[in-house]
């Protein structure tokens, strides 16, 4: 069942979502070649706890870390490791925070050092597809309208692989609520979007095949052909006219541009 939120509840989800955004902006300041993703996770968790929240993912279905950190061919649910990031890596950091009984959830893919034009375009198009999905996330539309918009902007226009096994979701008191929000589908189908719904839209887009597999660690999802994948996510509130985006990329993008160890010219 779908839990519709009151305006007061939406503000609590906004607070959690903006803390996620601030956490990702902290990550954008420190990420570089030579840092381990375990260190990134530690810094993110400390920031979340210093701000009076808990990391939503830690302990969720026994996930052992605050962040999912997915490098290159890892699509999502990556385990932070001691391995050091290198120039040319792309790194998705997916974070949730829980505060005042409500969750927020957002993800962002960073590029370390110089990356190829092909991968720049993957990041650019994946981020743009999130915006296109959000444009359709208004009262009166259906889930399939969001799904189709994302799929069209990625698979249809660029031949990228849209991951089928993993989807966006409702969010609130629970990290994952109904409805599911796939990144592929038909216009005019699926659950009706109604004012009061809060959902996470999160395109997971592969440069090559749409197929993925589970790594030996039991969590990390990797692309079937070893090519890179990108992932951007916002938590949004459905209302009439235009969605209210509860998380924000503004601070993350500013920190990304200011960090000379990151590539941001794909933006
Ligand atoms: Mg997420
Ligand atoms: Mg999510």
Account of the 3D structure:
- The chain is of the alpha+beta class.
- The chain has one domain: Creatine Amidinohydrolase, CATH 3.90.230.10.
- It is built from 5 helices and 16 strands.
- It has helices at residues 7-30, 37-50, 117-135, 143-158, 250-258, and strands at 54-55, 67-71, 74-76, 90-99, 102-112, 161-162, 168-170, 177-181, 198-201, 204-206, 212-214, 221-223, 229-231, 234-237, 244-245, 262-263.
- Strand 7 (168-170) and strand 8 form a beta hairpin.
- Helix 3 (117-135) runs antiparallel to helix 4.
- Bound molecules: magnesium ion (2 copies).
- One magnesium ion (MG) is lined by residues 105, 169, 200, 202, 233.
SSE blueprint and pairings:
Blueprint: H1 7-30, H2 37-50, E1 54-55, E2 67-71, E3 74-76, E4 90-99, E5 102-112, H3 117-135, H4 143-158, E6 161-162, E7 168-170, E8 177-181, E9 198-201, E10 204-206, E11 212-214, E12 221-223, E13 229-231, E14 234-237, E15 244-245, H5 250-258, E16 262-263
Antiparallel strand pairs: 1-4, 2-4, 3-12, 4-5, 5-16, 6-10, 7-8, 7-9, 9-14, 10-13, 11-12, 14-15
The structure holds magnesium ion (MG) (2 copies).
């Amino acid at each position: 069942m779908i839990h519709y939120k009151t305006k007061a509840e939406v503000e609590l989800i906004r607070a959690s979502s903006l803390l996620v955004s601030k956490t990702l902006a902290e990550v954008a300041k420190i990420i570089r070649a030579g840092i381990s993703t375990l260190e990134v996770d530690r810094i993110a968790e400390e920031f979340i706890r210093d701000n009076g929240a808990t990391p939503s993912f830690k302990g969720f279905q026994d996930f052992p870390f605050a962040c999912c950190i997915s490098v290159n061919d890892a699509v999502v649910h990556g385990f932070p490791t001691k391995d050091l990031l290198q120039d040319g890596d792309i790194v998705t950091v997916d974070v949730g925070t829980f505060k005042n009984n409500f969750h927020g959830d957002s993800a962002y893919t960073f590029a370390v050092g110089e990356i190829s034009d092909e991968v720049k375009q993957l990041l650019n198009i994946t981020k743009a597809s999130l915006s296109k999905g959000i444009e359709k996330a208004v009262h009166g539309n259906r889930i399939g309208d969001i799904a189709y918009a994302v799929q069209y902007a990625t698979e249809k226009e660029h031949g990228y692989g849209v991951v089928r096994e993993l989807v966006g979701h409702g969010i609130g008191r629970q990290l994952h609520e109904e409805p599911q929000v796939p990144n592929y589908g038909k216009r005019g189908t699926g659950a009706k979007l109604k004012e009061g719904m809060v959902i996470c839209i999160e395109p997971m887009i592969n440069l090559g095949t749409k197929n993925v597999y589970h790594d030996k660690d039991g969590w990390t999802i990797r692309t079937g052909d070893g090519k890179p994948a990108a992932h951007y996510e916002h938590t949004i509130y459905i209302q009439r006219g235009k969605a209210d985006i509860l998380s924000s990329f503004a601070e993350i993008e500013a920190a990304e541009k200011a960090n000379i160890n990151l590539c941001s010219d794909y933006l």
